[in-house]
Write a structure and sequence with these properties.
Shape: globular
Number of domains: 2
Number of helices: 17
Structural class: alpha+beta
Mean pLDDT: 85
Distance between the termini: 33 Å
Number of strands: 6
Radius of gyration: 23 Å
CATH architecture of the largest domain: Alpha-Beta Complex
Order of helices and strands: HEHHEHHHHEEHEHEHHHHHHHH
Low-confidence stretches: 1-8, 342-360
Oligomer: single chain
Largest sheet: 4 strands, antiparallel
Length: 360
């Protein structure tokens, strides 16, 4: 199976966000195993709510489920039935806050510990309204309608937990185009949404931010905030150690000694600690070594470096071995990559990053 640098660095999400999706797929008469397999996931990967899965694969599950069940609003329906506490600590943090405003702010503050590469922000407007907006920032995730609709529906349930089941938003906006045919949007959202907008957002009355949450619990809030704060720090530290390992791998490859013991020594940590930190990121040492080789190879070839030099810098004693590996990674030979110039998988990854910056 070919591996790309971009695949290994894509963001993750807690499996809790997909809690109950297999049951909902099965209830629609479709084999959930078939849907998960097509998205590149195994059923047991969703059993542990604290396990991290690929955000891209998570989004694919709902897109594929909508197609196979022939329910175009599959994500919307899933999100509408999803209670905040099903998200685990993040959901309980929100419902333990003293007010709706605090619940939404805490949810946005700690969302990165639950779901990476995601924008969630709340702001007040000058006309007495307020808004909360949501977007995935990973530009490589192109199909995201189902995620947008289920996420907005989940957020609406935080409002309704505080304001009651009959509460209605002032407006709901979606970035994707208006779906064709009849849908359940107005029924489930409580308003007729606008499509092809600049962001996915909920507009509501600013005064509602001061409404008290019915299950507010200051002690629980402090406990959960402490735990989520640690997770947030670990997530950031994990990203930092991955970049450090990649840097050391680049040096070690050229020197000809790039096994886990050599890299652990260079990073100043025991090998078991290094493996554990990579596991937290959903990686193995071999995954990261392959990713680093792809990254170094494509960068050097893009600068016009001779194939023989690139092979040597990546620790290959024979150019033929490097060429076979490069073809497995990218689908083309190193020389064909040079001829094609920027029309490569690597260039696509950089274009996706630019797309994400535009969303920000």
């Amino acid at each position: 199976m070919s591996v790309s640098s971009g695949e290994l660095q894509r963001p993750l999400v807690m499996a809790a966000a997909a809690h109950g999706v297999s049951e909902r797929i099965a209830a629609a008469g479709v084999d959930p195993g078939e849907v998960l397999s097509e998205a590149g996931l195994e059923a047991d990967e969703l059993q542990d709510p604290t396990r991290r899965i690929s955000l891209s694969q998570y989004c694919q599950v709902f897109e594929i489920a909508a197609h196979k069940t022939m329910h175009s609003t599959f994500g919307l329906e899933f999100g509408s039935a999803f209670h905040p506490q099903q998200l685990g600590m993040l959901g309980y943090l929100a419902i333990s806050a003293p007010t709706l405003g605090m619940a939404l702010r805490k949810f946005a503050d700690y969302l990165p510990a639950h779901q990476q590469a995601t924008h969630l922000a709340m702001r007040t407007l000058t006309d007495g309204r307020a808004m909360i907006e949501y977007a995935i920032l990973d530009g490589s995730i192109r199909s995201r309608r189902q995620d947008a609709e289920l996420s907005i529906a989940m957020l609406l349930n935080v409002f309704r937990h505080c304001l009651g089941p009959r509460w209605l938003p002032m407006a709901v906006h979606f970035m994707h185009a208006r779906p064709s045919g009849r849908t359940r949007h107005e029924e489930l959202l409580g308003t007729r949404p606008l499509f092809a907008q600049t962001s996915n957002r909920i507009l509501f009355r600013q005064a509602e931010l001061d409404c008290a949450m019915p299950r507010r619990d200051y002690d629980l809030l402090c406990l959960l905030e402490s735990q989520l704060g640690k997770q947030l720090a670990e997530t950031r530290a994990c990203s930092d150690i991955v970049e450090r390992i990649r840097h050391e791998m680049g040096i070690a490859l050229a020197a000809g000694a790039c096994d886990v013991d050599a890299i652990s020594k260079r990073c100043g940590v025991p090998s078991w600690t290094l493996k554990r930190r990579l596991k937290q990121r959903g990686l193995t040492f071999q995954d990261l070594l392959t990713s680093t080789r792809i990254d170094l190879a494509t960068r050097q070839l893009s600068r016009g470096a001779p194939v023989t030099n690139v092979a040597a810098d990546l620790g290959y004693s024979q150019v033929s071995a490097f060429s076979r590996a490069f073809r497995q990674w990218t689908g083309v030979s190193p020389r064909e990559y040079l001829r094609r110039g920027s029309s490569t998988p690597y260039a696509d990854a950089e274009s996706s990053a630019a797309d994400a910056e535009e969303l920000i």
